[in-house]
Write a structure and sequence with these properties.
Elements lengths: L1 H10 L4 H20 L3 H12 L27 H6 L4 E6 L7 H14 L5 E6 L19 H13 L5
Parallel strand pairs: 1-2
Helix pairs in contact: 1-2, 2-3
Length: 162
């Protein structure tokens, strides 16, 4: 979310100072959710951010939730990826505004190199963003032809036998 929200701010013309404020606010928010400590300091940071015009792009609540309410916030999928033995097909929109694409693809490749994962296919969808659709629009008729063709071909090639 830090990466995706920073991309959103830049997309809408906000400067590095706004991105730095957003990042420090998200870090403070995450610190509070982990520890439950210094709620008033975390809420003050959130209040400061809420007064900024970019706050709706932060995907943060106006009021802090209960500590521990984001249970998977520190989940690191890399060890799990290396243990996969099934074929994997992963799509990324070439202009995905939410995923750190290069880092994600690097994690998949590292898992293949060091683990049980042997059958990995990574595909970048031209003209797609976070959704596998052209122009990032959510309509079914905008689904990328490359997505449909690749998925169909990949499913036909994968053995269902163990």
């Amino acid at each position: 979310m830090r990466d995706g929200c920073a991309k959103q701010l830049r997309k809408y013309g906000y400067d590095d100072a706004a991105v730095a404020h957003l990042t420090s606010t998200r870090l403070e928010y995450e610190r509070f959710l982990r520890s439950g400590e210094e709620r008033s300091a975390a809420q003050a940071q959130l209040d400061s951010a809420a007064a900024r015009p970019w706050f709706p792009l932060s995907y943060l609540p106006r009021t802090l939730p209960s500590p521990g309410s984001w249970r998977d916030m520190d989940f690191d999928p890399r060890p799990l990826l290396a243990s996969l033995t099934c074929p994997v097909l992963a799509f990324y929109g070439e202009t995905d505004e939410w995923m750190p694409i290069e880092e994600s693809e690097a994690a998949w490749r590292a898992a293949r190199e060091r683990g049980a994962l042997k059958d990995l296919t990574l595909v970048r969808l031209h003209g797609a963003d976070h959704l596998p659709t052209e122009g990032g629009r959510p309509e079914m008729e905008r689904i990328s032809a490359l997505y449909t063709e690749t998925l169909t071909r990949w499913l036909a090639s994968v053995s269902c036998e163990r």
